[in-house]
């Protein structure tokens, strides 16, 4: 069909520039989250009846206001540590434990025991766990996490399937796992796979569902199929937005053939990435060997993604938002590492100067969650906008 390529919608913060500049007065670096954007993304994932269970992967952003917002939108929560589990239970008192899923990786036995005792869902991804800790799993219901032999995603560091990845039981070991589970009276009630993050292929999830459903037919006791998270967001200005309608259509179609299974998803990034920005302030502008650099008061300590994955985040000078962005600058932070670079040759207003408030875009997922105190820098502040 011949139609123009879908454009990114205007980001929410374009309507809040004066407010954001004012908020920066209270101190930078500062994360700001826009709850209406979180709600809009949550609703985009609800426009299908194919999905029965939605878990938000709170490793992306555990901010309590975001958890409350997504709980109100009908989401449960996927946790990768007992501390995340405790955070959900403390933030949302009275939440039904059945809305919490624990997907540990190489956790000690005590963590499985604690999670099972709370009545939350727990994934297991090795035969070794059942063999070494039979009393932990005897007569329990568990979810089996699988490695479908392939990974996908925006960077090799976020692929969680295939031999090089530490996650998941390989399909070749399913029979051994089922036999071991049977011995213990352990019931496999769900099959789970999360193969990576930032996967820009709408049919990925329907393929994962199909693979898991055919395995579920073999296992026999399965009720739920969890196809993971990994939905991407457009980070660059000219990026094509993820085709969420095609994603939903794929799930509708595949679910129609496997109505006996309940379908679960566990997205993180898609729900929160575009809702978050970081406010930082320019410290110095320095020219060296023909390269002009603008330094900001937060760097890879505040937002690690560019240094860790070469990830792109838009950089905007809010103090001069009406000036043409016609001069190339490298945008750097204050950290004692050469990788402390937000972007190279970014086009910014020529007059960009010390004291200007800058905005780093699309930082709501894996931003504050991965912030750290390297060089003994304080963690950023966080605040919410709900209009
Ligand atoms: N479920 C499981 C089991 C996961 O391991 C993850 C993410 C998710 C769900 C949510 O994935 P999402 O929908 O957010 O793609 N720090 C990296 C991403 C690491 C993802 C870790 N696991 C980044 O900033 O790109």
Automatic annotation (TrEMBL):
UniProt keywords (A-Z) are: Amino-acid biosynthesis, ATP-binding, Decarboxylase, Kinase, Lyase, Nucleotide-binding, Pyridoxal phosphate, Transferase
User: What does the record give under GO molecular function?
Assistant: aspartate kinase activity; diaminopimelate decarboxylase activity
Transmembrane stretches, start-end: none
What organism is recorded for this protein?
Lysobacter brunescens
Q: What is this protein called?
A: aspartate kinase
According to the record, which residues of the full protein are present here? 486 to 872 of 872
